[in-house]
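User: I'm writing a tutorial on reading structure tokens. Could you give me a worked example: one chain, its sequence, then its tokens, then a sentence or two explaining what the tokens reveal?
Assistant: Sure. Here is the example chain.
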Amino acid sequence: MSPGGRTYPGWLWVPVGVGALFVLLPLAAIVTHVDWAHFVRLITSQASVAALVLSLETAAMSTVICVVLGVPMAIVLARGHFPGQSIGRALVLVPLVLPPVVSGLALLYTVGRQGLLGPLLEQLGWQVPFTTAAVVLAQSFVSLPFIVISLEGALRSETSNHDEIALAYGASRTQVLQKITLPALGPALISGAVLSFARSLGEFGATITVAGSLQGVTRTLPLEIYLRNNTDPDAAVALSLVLIVVALVVVFVAGRPWRAAAGAELALLFGGRGGRETAARASMEA
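And here are its predicted structure tokens:
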């Protein structure tokens, strides 16, 4: 090993530096164009606050939906064996590669009046397009893959030996899920939920397609920035900075060092035969 523990050639710092500039320069450009003298007024206008509050509320709701749906999907994809599993995984990940406007059109043709579910929703008296529910729907659709990927990767990196031992001790599959599998997913679940929240907060294309841009109803902060860029560029830049700060906070939280500590703690808890037997007995006795 080279001095200082470095195992890579020094010339790699050249593309690293170019990549860092590629990311940092646009962010710096935003900061340098902020009207600091009127920054507070720009981000606290009625329209700006309404858009920010709506973004936070809908992103929180979509994150809950992603957790409720994503956890079972990740477990089944990582631990299950069924026909068409690879196809199912590919379908789950499709929203990651679809253009946002295509995602919005797909949702519109699903819940719109002429969509697949349109007649049923109309009979129930539910109108989804161009409502806050449509915003949550769009955000959930594009954010769900993030939590599935995070959890599936964590499940594949962990062995299922402790699950099998718990079953051998007489625990039911539901008890194993509640007492062993889900607690072991804690760090990955938090990371995935934070990333899903961030993706929901920045969603634009699918939202404007299926939900439109109605102030206080469907106009989230990205939509507000887009509209302000045509009428009030200073406000658009100020609100963009707000989103950048939020994104930095989210990335920081998702990558906190506690994840490694939590992983080590879980390894200590479930590592080795003694730890696994303890977890198995606890699941059986619960």
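What the tokens reveal: The mean pLDDT is 83. The CA atoms of residues 98 and 271 lie 40 Å apart.
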